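Lab meeting minutes (informal)
Scribe: AK
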Amino acid sequence: MWSGRFEGRPDPDVFEFGRSFSFDRRLLDDDITGSMAWVASLGDAGVLSSAEVEQISSALAQTRAEAGSIYDLQSTEDEDVHSYVEAKL
């Protein structure tokens, strides 16, 4: 997420301070549902083709299925649940 905006990696202490994956992982299903709605909207607006909408939606559904229970999700290097979903895609 930091690439393209900053040179180098964020300060480890600042990154750790803002990290919320351990408790916002319970939002995984909601995050994926919102991402699917956003993808559909981008398709409706003509920003994404129907094939791109299908590919992204399928990948999001697969991410949801692979995650299983939100409590099965182990801590990752991701800052938050949305970063986790983006990394999976």
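Next up, CB showed the second protein from the same session:
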Amino acid sequence: MRNTGHPPGSWYADTATPFAPLPPLTGEARADVCVVGAGYTGLGAALELARRGVSVVLLEAATVGSGASGRNGGQVHTGQRRDQAWLEKAVGRDDAMALWRLAGEARTHLMALIADHAIACDWRPGMIHARHKLGGEGEDARHIDFMASRYGDDQLALIGAADLATELGTGVYFGGMIDRAGGHLHPLNLALGLARAAIAQGAVIHERSAARAWRREGGQILVETGAERVVCDQLILTGDGYLDDLAGPVANARVMPINNFILATEPLGDRAETIIRSDAAVADTRFVVNYYRKSPDGRLLFGGGENYSPGFPRDLAGFVRGHMLKVYPQLADVKITHAWGGTLGITLHRVPYVRTLAPGVRVAAGYSGQGVMLAPYFGKLLADAALGDGDGVELLARLPVPPFPGGRWLRWPLTVAGLSWFAMRDRL
């Protein structure tokens, strides 16, 4: 789906810190590095490059943070998208340990970005993983013990069904885990804050400047937006679910866009005190995850449901409200003030696709819902690689990201059929 800017009905856009429009690219620009996509990854790369004295031009097809980075649930999950036990089987214990350390560095990096650049994005700690089916407490306990003994993670704790019901204000779950290192924030304000920081360091950002193609000419790379172009030595491609064919057929076969949806209620008043009492973020264990949290003014921000077609449901508020009422039927009388959707990139194994596509050309996409914490740091790693330190990118490139079954033309119906089957299991 093409990104045309911040979606109508977005509570994030309505509450974002004002950000002046940036001019589109005109004529020809010259830079050491061209970055495509002004989301977390691209902004993180541009900020790091500019901070280190590298000339950088960032091209954004729509507006800063208007893709997944400014539309998502704002939840900060620790670790990689897949758990450490899965990673050990996929890449071996040494790489799994390195990926755990990298994820810890990503969290530290995010907190430092917020603090160092005074980004007002309403950071709040606490992440609850709620089990939606009976059973699983033993599995959760074993996971906590595994993470503590093998990886030194002391931030996880079990929570029983009764305590969880009191905490969340709903009795639909059967217990779960609390991750004290997780949290939530205003995702669009994070993106806008990163853009301001990058510009302050000397990065040049052009909005409404969609990169349509790139090619190598002599010893340089030409990135074309139509009649305009950027001439650069190295190229970083970001954009996640909005990359289209820019990263080529190999990447296109491995990263597929899907759509997810969020609503915001009116301020709940006194009822806000009975819902998520600790003010943590919540995500449940459904394949199509319900994820939610409270806003600073006491609204419930609830994400639920997804689709795999190019368009969004006609009645977004009604679509998400049905999911919300299964968790909070007591909110049936509450007004929905905002509803919006967004597109994100997923991979078959739900691990990010980070690769060197050609000499001097790198891509990062397919965060599969884990981008708030990982993407700014992955931008830094891409910047490091552009400057000669490719260790982080090389580690991530060892993650297995096979193509979706069916090739270019059949991957969509086959994948949709599979995703729909898993979604059906949520309802059983």
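CB comment: The mean pLDDT is 93.
No objections, moving on.
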